Amino acid sequence: MRQAFPDARDVRLVSHYLLHDKAFVCRRTSGELDDLCRQVASLVRTIERDEQCAPRESGLYDWCKYPDFCPAKKHQRTVEALPRTRYLADPGVALVRQYAKIRRKYDDLSARAQICATELWFIEHAAVTSRRTRECRSSPAESSPCAWPDEQS
Questions:
Q1: Does 68 have pLDDT greater than 70?
Q2: Exposed, middle or buried, 109 (CB in 10 Å: 0-12/13-18/19+)?
Q3: Distance between CA 1 and CA 138 in Å, rounded?
Q4: The predicted structure's pLDDT at residue 42
């Protein structure tokens, strides 16, 4: 800032958070600005040296303005332009299709397992209730097995 505006004395960074109707103001001394410049320059050098440049996907990933440069999106953008026969023959597309098929089968089996678990619970509950009812009819003593453990004195 000092180089761009040498006459400026008091430089403030104001961040406006519209959703919360707040403004946050940050002031830095000359020394702090010099430190910040060094940190930013160091970070830029670190990024430039990084040969992997592994992307980190998040909920904002689809909003990226530079998908053509992203290694995570490169294959998708390449195969989207292919004719259908070549698209379906692509090994990456075949792998994703196989994954999706197995995932659907897994989800279906998981849902069926949940239904079975619920049915088992109801059957077990009915069996216990039925057994306790039969035992209560045959021996209605005070220390009856009909009473739950916390009901017995």
A1: yes
A2: exposed
A3: 93
A4: 95
Q: Tens of pLDDT along 25-57?
A: 988 887 888 898 899 999 999 988 887 777 777
DSSP 79-114: HHTS-HHHHHH-HHHHHHHHHHHHHHHHHHHHHHHH
Q: Which residue has the tokens 């160091």?
A: 42
Give the integer Cα–Cα distance in Å for 101 and 96: 9
List, for residues 88-106, the tens digit of each pLDDT value: 888 988 999 999 999 999 9
Query: Binning pLDDT at 50, 70 and 90, where does residue 150 land?
Result: low
Q: What angle (nearest 5°) sits at the alpha carbon of residue 23, between those of residues 44 and 60?
A: 50
Q: How far apart are CA 99 and CA 97, in angstroms?
A: 5
What is the residue whose two structure tokens read 């953008």? 77
Contacts of 16 (CB under 8 A, 6+ apart): 22, 23
- Distance, in Å, from the CA atom of 22 to the CA atom of 14, rounded to the nearest integer, reads 10
How far apart are alpha carbons 85 and 33 in whole angstroms? 57
